[in-house]
């Protein structure tokens, strides 16, 4: 992409109000790095136990950075970071103040990219990371407390690479951040009150995965509703649609995630020198840097055999990995809303809709909604203008017991 076009893309996103540039003089937090250094060895405890916490800063809310216990895709205990936000204004709705788990949109792979850092004005925030603040603000403005997870990743010392869009680990991180918010002292939040989940893109997949696993992994949580925007439900489809396009970086992130979560697959053995170099570069990037740096790359140029990544994912051992990470195989126990632009230029809309139909076939309560989109260009990103408001409004209904019966059979 030319420098002129690159500046134009960034200017368009900022002007649209979708993202905000980080404040140049954002205050640093006292002792903030200690939250990202877990006890060694990890202490015994329950999933969602708070290991460490430190005060953070965020307009309109009391913010606390946390380190909590969770589980990776192999059921191994891990330390995960995040932030709990409690609005400064009192809760005026019925019952107790709800907590919503916010599953972040793709933010990158480098330690500097973690949302718990960038939301506090630290790390290396790019303009895309401003979306995280927009979603958090929409939820806070409704009076909800927000429990934001960073997922597993290198922002926590010893955390390894980020298992990007790996279904089990991201679902666990989302559900356990709700538990952590309920157990965090000094917040005034209820220990067993109503909770919800919301996310878009990578976060939509994490939210959808959490919806499927909540009943078995965290049955004590009173999950009233889950919003999943533009979920990457079928990784096999994405390996084809992203290859060689503007957003091929997301496919690179997914391969790094597979390599982290399934080392036994020995994915790096497939890469040629250029592929290995891309792995090393991508693991240090935040989203926008990766998009611009790798756009147009053909994965066939990165493998020893000259075959594209999609061809490997269709055969052992990767076909089993793809199957394990497909979303739509389990019935969510709570009402769900799935929303996506029919013109989505990153995640094919058919994948999100198929996931919703799969849930419907299992008897789930599903509300499908087309995100408003006026152009096929940047439609995935521009969908983020609408997603926070739609998610918040729908969760408000869910917390009132008014989520409805869904629209299965009508989409």
UniProtKB/TrEMBL annotation:
State whether keyword Metal-binding applies.
no
Q: According to its UniProt record, what is one Pfam family this protein matches?
A: LIP
What InterPro entries does this protein's entry cite?
Answer: AB_hydrolase_fold (IPR029058), Lipase_secreted (IPR005152)
User: Which keywords fit this entry according to its UniProt record?
Assistant: Signal
Q: Where is the signal peptide?
A: 1-30
PANTHER family, per this entry? Answer: LIPASE 5, PTHR34853
Indicate what this protein is called per its UniProt record: Lipase family protein
Record organism: Amycolatopsis nalaikhensis
**Lineage of producing organism:** Bacteria, Bacillati, Actinomycetota, Actinomycetes, Pseudonocardiales
